[in-house]
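Data card: per-record layout.
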Amino acid sequence: MSAAVRVAQIGVIHPHAAGFRETLLLMPEVELVAFYDPDPAAARPLLQPALQGRPLYSDLATLLREMRPEAALITLPNDVTPPAITQAAEASAHIFAEKPCARTTTEFRSAAQAIRKAGRQFATGYLRRASAIGGTIKRLVEEGLLGRLISVEARWITTSVAVRNPAHYLFSRERSGGGILHWLGCHWLDFIRWVTSAEVTEVAAILGTLSGEGISVEDTAALSLRYSNGMIGSLHCSYVTDKATDQLFFGLRGTLGWVIWEKSGHELVARSTHPAWATAPTRVLRFEPDAVGGYGGAEGIALWRRFIASFREGVSPLFTVEDALRVLEVLDAAHQSAESGRRVALTPA
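The structure for this 349-residue chain is written out next.
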């Protein structure tokens, strides 16, 4: 039996840090060996009881030198994530970095190059790539059951800035680079690209700070997107509801059919006029919910297991650094478009 993968968490206080720790505690093939946080006094009480005896460093270089982790889980604010990635990769750790991995494309490029130069594997927290429904949608597209893709639509409406604490660094342009697009909209941008294998070629965006809170990032965003396959899409995000009932929606349509996935739930509605579905053109595909804890439940565990398999078993990775770069390029273009009032063209990689 192979030895457990030694993982160090770099950043303890991030909003998703505890969830990721819970995920790794559920995985017997992983050992969380150490932690780094710039504020150890605030970080220590946040560690789960099972982890209280593990070393907690205030200096990242010392952790990497003394503990030599096989993989690093980086859960830090966007402004300090790229240099932490570079440091960990140069210490020969494989990198799992919380999305979107940086404030801008430019900031992430040096980190991406460090990962490439070190020959390390990379993954990030776009969970829908590991979901059963996500994989089903991708398969329907690849099998041609939707025909030529024409329209894609995604929404993420969630709790207000006031509910989420306007003083948090997630609402700081200096720390995070952007608001709801950098925190939530990026999930859909990655998912659309993944399931359709199409790149964004043009962005028109309207961004607003409408909550009345004293924040420096957008809390509402509307994007129109043109893709390399000719498809036209939209993404709408807003921090606006008064309680934790997210309004999520994904719809994809082509010349032969469509799919609808609501609330990121366990049911996919699909229709295809392809001959292969002649006996039942409209179908409701149901997937069993999981009762697993941690960040993203079973999807989070699946994401980590695929990441580990990429460097332990040579399995093709679910992510590359280019995937993170492509999302950041769209985020940059959205902000540029909103500030200029013009469409912004992107050149597909």
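Known properties of this structure: The chain has a mean pLDDT of 97. Residues 129 and 191 are 7 Å apart (CA to CA).

See the next section for split statistics.
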